[in-house]
Amino acid sequence: MAGVEDAGASVDIHLTQMEEAGELAALIERSAEELSRDYYSQAQRIAAITHVFGVDRQLIADRTYFTVLVNGQMAACGGWSRRETLFGGDQYSDRSARLLDPASEAARIRAFFVDPAFARRGLASLMLDACERAAGSEGFTALELMATLPGVPFYASRGFEHKDDITVALDGADVPFVAMRKVLNRSADHQAFRTS
């Protein structure tokens, strides 16, 4: 599949199923711990994994969350949302299930995590393409997200612009994030993502 470095790899992207939640939780923790090591202290990483990063079952129920398998192995996950919550898994307290208005509000890009063994192989771009098409097909013309520090260069390369620096206080650890926004190209093909 285009964008994945190993041309011989079998890559499958599908809508996440609830029964995958346990395996996703382990992938998310591995990703947050290893890929954030050069950006966040140990205290910040532990606080973020404990209180923010995690599986969001609302995204799975809404059928807006994707899992990527490479040669049958879970390699990445990420999605988008038509709901107000900007970031945080089930355990995060600052959540809202209010539906957004596509005419005046931006869809959310949510919970992108890549297994460190599959980092920098185009999987995040694969998921983001699927999210942009799906959000665009529902009438959204902009996307917003809360990026981790290691994620900022990737999102910037995909047309997201810096909106604000945010610090979240968690268990005495101040964890910095970056709010970002992108206006979708109206002429782009926003056909709904279809599973195979």
Report on the structure:
It is built from five helices and seven strands. It is α+β, with helices and mostly antiparallel strands and 196 residues long. It has one domain: Gcn5-related N-acetyltransferase (GNAT) (Aminopeptidase, 3-Layer(aba) Sandwich), CATH 3.40.630.30. It has a seven-stranded mixed β-sheet. Residues 188-196 have low confidence and may be disordered.
Keywords:
alpha+beta, Aminopeptidase, 7-stranded mixed beta sheet, globular, disordered C terminus
CATH architecture: 3-Layer(aba) Sandwich
**CATH topology assignment:** Aminopeptidase
Beta fraction: 25-35%
Strand order, sheet with most strands: 1-2-3-4-5-7-6
Mean pLDDT equals 91
Shape: globular
Structural class: alpha+beta
Task: Give the low-pLDDT segments.
Answer: 188-196
Summarize the SSE layout with pairings.
Blueprint: E1 11-15, H1 21-35, H2 42-51, H3 57-61, E2 65-70, E3 73-81, E4 107-114, H4 123-137, E5 142-147, H5 152-157, E6 161-170, E7 173-183
Short account of what is shown:
The chain has 196 residues and is of the alpha+beta class. It has helices at 21-35, 42-51, 57-61, 123-137, 152-157; strands at 11-15, 65-70, 73-81, 107-114, 142-147, 161-170, 173-183. The protein has one domain: 3-Layer(aba) Sandwich (Aminopeptidase), CATH 3.40.630.30.
